[in-house]
Amino acid sequence: MINVELEGMDELHRRLSAIDSPQTRNKIIKKIGAEVRKNSKKRAITQTNLTGTTFAKHARGRKRKMLTRLAQRMVIKDVSDDGVTVGWGNSFEGGIADQHHFGTTRTFTRRSFGENSMENVNKNDQCTRRQAKALIEAGFKRRRAGRPGVTPTIRWLVENMTVGQAGVILRALRGGPKESWMITLPARQFLGVSETERAEITTLALGIIQAALERQS
């Protein structure tokens, strides 16, 4: 979640406190949260960090934009005289956003990819989507008569390969039965406000507050 606190912004907080109506104060604070959310969504669309630098590229070279759907689901969670909280409706999505924003390193095992848990799985069943993705990531190529191999689609792998076949090929591509491996997720800092945005939001808020005070008087 993103916390935009009004404490510390002395003049803004002083003027806001002078507004008699709690509903008006909440509307103004909610407007601040909406600006934070808008800027965060914009960074996801432009694929830029708070510093203006471009997001780290996708590990597998994909050109598809990252975090856009997650950013679209941001909501204003809580509004009070002390501040506004912007985040997600559930902790799972909030956790994903946190990992992307700050970066993380995760350990994956063969069991987590279904390579070593065949107790309840028939090896003749269709290859799972998780195995298919792992095969593509490992560099598997579909052979074609007289032509270079081509990277298959997930759909093709699921329809044309069994669980057992996928497991054997994965182990071969990875040089044996590797027990675990590390995957690093680089930081892509799309949340919060930059220094420029902070100044812009403060100016906007002061203008709205001044207008409310004039109407009040």
Concise summary:
Helix content is 46%, strand content 16%.
Pick out its properties.
217 residues; alpha+beta; 3-stranded antiparallel beta sheet; two-stranded antiparallel ribbon; 46% helix
Protein described:
The protein has 217 residues and is of the alpha+beta class. Helices cover 46% and strands 16% of the residues. The chain contains eight helices and seven strands; from the N terminus they run βαααββαβαββααβα. The protein has a three-stranded antiparallel sheet, covered by helices on one side. A two-stranded antiparallel sheet has the order 4-7. Helix 2 (22-46) packs antiparallel against helix 8 (195-216), helix 5 crosses helix 6 and helix 5 (129-138) packs parallel to helix 7.
Q: Which secondary structure elements does this structure contain, and how are they paired or packed?
A:
Layout: E1 2-5, H1 10-17, H2 22-46, H3 68-72, E2 75-80, E3 83-87, H4 91-102, E4 104-109, H5 129-138, E5 142-144, E6 147-150, H6 154-160, H7 163-173, E7 180-185, H8 195-216
Antiparallel strand pairs: 1-3, 2-3, 4-7, 5-6
The helix count comes to 8
Mean pLDDT: 84
Structural class: alpha+beta
Query: How would you write the strand order of the largest sheet?
Result: 1-3-2
Main β-sheet: number of strands, strand sense, barrel status?
A: 3 strands, antiparallel
Q: Looking at the structure, what is the overall shape?
A: elongated
The total strand number stands at: 7
- Give the terminus-to-terminus CA distance: 36 Å
β content, as a range? 15-25%
